Amino acid sequence: MSSIMLGLTSVFLGLLAVLSHEMGHRFAARLLGIHYDGRRLSFWGAFPEYRVDFGPPVPASVTVFLAGPAVNVLLWQSSLSILGAGQGAWSVFFPQVAFLLHLFAMINAGLALVNLFPGFPFDMGIAVAQIFCRAHGLERPGEGSLPERLGWAGAFAVSLVGLLLIGRGFLVSGFAGLIVGFLLFTVLLDFRRRNRVARILDEEGLVSWIEPVPYLVRDEMWMQEVILRGFGEGRGESLPVAGDKLSYRGELTWEQSRRRSFIQWEGIRVRDLDDLSPGPSVDWADGSSQVLEVLGRSPDGVPVLRGGRVAGFLRAAPLYQAATVDGYLEGYVHRKGGDGGAIAPEYALPRGEQSPTVKSDHPKEDRPGPAPPSPPEGS
């Protein structure tokens, strides 16, 4: 029983070290006023998401990425100092505690060393890429950069070591190496795909990828109508809200609509709500890195704003599909052929209002926005 408890405690210490590492990133980012996203933190540890940073390089971002390994080094040294302060008394009177302190120190030292490898997706690799991008005036590390190549080499090396260990009979260690190698390959493939999406956005812009808004909530709509037609038809957990002349007000979430029963929403319009969430959105002037950051948080789609007005909807799936085709066909971009004015007619301006003109970045593609549907004959 004691061995089982010791094993569970060891696993908990490993997760605690990883959590401390990620909290170091978060603390440094908050201290320096930098938005730090892409991590899911929990009591049991940290699970990296979109590890390779695409954000515009700033000097303080290098400090943020190196703060994680720095916390692990601090915990490693603190654990060894506690062991040394007892001058051997820990091992004599509390051997289990001494073992756990030594294990915690080794875990933190290992995490620090791994993340100091100058290749993707480790922290030092991202920091090196940020320094290189800032020195050359780039917004993101390009495909085939040195940190990416080192990352591929590291993933191959870890996988090869795992195969060698399995061949020598170390099954647990070998399979662990293969799993780590697979995870590294997955992150690197995601990085390459996102890099191609960024290149497509740089070349094509947003105009080719805007879709009609699945369901655009207007200020004058009744809340009961929104619940029945919007959330009731399974259009998602959140809906973009537009005010006068399609100006973006934020998003209405399913949780907000559930604060009252359906009967209690009678006689209340959307404009009566004063607690709308800002919601994620993409501005027409955003760079490819900013678009990818927003889509990474909301892959199901976000509204596209132009001059503060809703111009359409952008989803991640078509862009990633185009990136896959682009990789297979050597630079072929799968165009959607949008026109920049993708508001669906049934959710456009109310009858009698003038539809705003939506201008694209290409003169030949300038055209007025969709007009509201005409009333049926005889009405």
Any overview of this molecule?
This protein is mainly α and 379 residues long. The protein folds into 3 domains: 2-141, no CATH class; 147-204; 217-368, CBS-domain, CATH 3.10.580. It contains 11 helices and 10 strands. A 3-stranded mixed β-sheet has the order 3-4-5. Strand 3 (217-218), helix 8 (223-231) and strand 4 (238-242) form a beta-alpha-beta unit. Helix 7 (171-204) packs across helix 10. The longest helix has 34 residues, at 171-204. It is globular.
Index terms:
single chain; 379 residues; mainly alpha; CBS-domain; 3 domains; 3-stranded mixed β-sheet; 11 helices; disordered C terminus
Brief account:
50% of the residues lie in helices and 10% in strands. By secondary structure, the protein is mainly α.
* CATH class type of the largest domain: Alpha Beta
Question: How many strands?
Answer: 10
State the fourth-level CATH superfamily of the largest domain: CBS-domain
Q: Kindly report the average pLDDT value.
A: 75
| SS class | mainly alpha
Number of helices: 11
Termini separation (Å)?
Answer: 81 Å
Order of helices and strands: HEEHHHHHHEHEEHEHEEHEE
Q: In percent, how helical is the residue content?
A: 40-55%
Give the neighbour order of strands across the main sheet. Answer: 3-4-5
Low-pLDDT segments, ≥5 res: 42-52, 344-379
The total number of structural domains is 3
Q: Architecture of the largest domain in CATH?
A: Roll
The Cα radius of gyration reads 26 Å
